[in-house]
Specification:
This protein is mainly alpha-helical. The protein has 22 helices and no strands. The protein has one domain. It is found in: Cell inner membrane; Cell membrane.
Length: about 525
Amino acid sequence: MSLLRASATIGGLTLVSRVLGFLRDMLMARFVGAGFASDAFLIAWRLPNLFRALFAEGAFSAAFVPMFNRTVAEAEAKEPGNGLDIALRFAEDVLSVLLPFLIVFTVAMMLAAGPIVWAMTGGFPDGGPEKFALATQYTRITFPYLMLISLVSLLGGILNSLNRFWVNAAAPILLNICLIVGLLFFRGHSEVETARTQAIAVTVSGALQLAWLVLACWQAGVRLRIRLPRLSPEVRRLLALIGPAAIGAGAVQFNLLISTTLAARFLPQGSVSYLYYADRLNQLPLGLIGIGVGTAMLPSLSRQLGGGDTKAALDTQNRAIELVLLLTLPATAALMVSATPLIRALLQHGVFTAHDTIASARALAAFSLGLPAYVLIKVLTPGFYARADTRTPVRIALVAMLVNLVLNLVLIWPLAHVGLALSTAISAWVNAVLLYLTLRRRDHFAIDDRLRRTGVRLIAATLAMAALLFVLNPWIDPWTGRSLIERVAALGAMIAAAVIVYFGLVFALGAYSLATLKGQLRRRR
């Protein structure tokens, strides 16, 4: 399957998930708002959500998928026709070690929920013991999700290796469906009760996602047996790779965790929620583009490097960056220039106020400065993982995290929660630039002439689109506070105009052509 086709498959399903996710956030803004209960729930949701990002979209897949593919290839060379069976035995060994560890870790984290929440929030100086108790209760409810989603990532990694990308990409849809159902049909009479329903729905969704992946594996002929734990040499190697990969792949998530912790400790009530809502909108293009391309790219890159075809691997990396820039640059401009009308149209209703809109929009504009960097990190790190190097991204991520922490402490006082968002964006650029420079220094990656030409033309098209949005904002903004139909029509008109101008210039300037897109969509041997 071509990179673009695989990325489109993952990205299309991720689009469904992200749209449902933002519908969920719109409902949460309406029924829970940005205050006491929402801050407590978002703190409780931050840790399992961090591990979800690491395992489902980062460390585990980054370490497991290349090893699984190499096991298949090496076994096929020795025993033709038995490669997959031997690789599945390796997966069973991984499961036998992973499952008991997850059970013990989850129970321990639930028992220690109080100290963990206190470490993150300092006891919520702005909300008192009631808010702290609420966040602790929500944390105990949501944490089993970690165990369930980690098992999902194991099964999803196997299916990705078999080029069944769509199954794993569709799983997060169940999370958003559960949360939406909880908000629409099982919410309580208060914001506190509604937030508790959300916490329960998180764990229920984990069980449904696991059931979905198990069913898909059975249909693919994959049935893993649970054995007695055995630390085989392959499992030891996998575990050695996962730890560094977790830090490397999770740098952005760790930075968000630090920002959330500082907001809970030092900023007024609602700051945690402002950062959450802004990050959710910022994560939409990241999920569609960066995660989709990075996930589709890793198996191909592993096979190309394993077969010694470095030229093909270099072309894969260049075309991946070309593709993400095509889609990320206009998204960045739109989120920065039109942050306020977007937030107002999507979230400002119910208990979400005009003040909440302005505060969230400022954070969104700051987060969006780093959007191209967030996406490039997802595309550049497979260049290390495909070579079984998970340590180098760790060292780079630690540097970026240190930069983020220093900037947080410097910018939080003059800029409040906006300073925290800006620190995250800058540290993401530090991470992306260091990843690129390291690959280039090792002769593992070089920007080709086609990417240089395309990049300049895409930037020109993006600037023109940004200018259009700047002119349209005063015309669109009054409509974003009216009825749902008027909001949708206003946003639709603004987005349509931006898309026409951007892609019209992309094709007119020769940055991309229809022939190029058709070529990337074709299946390649």
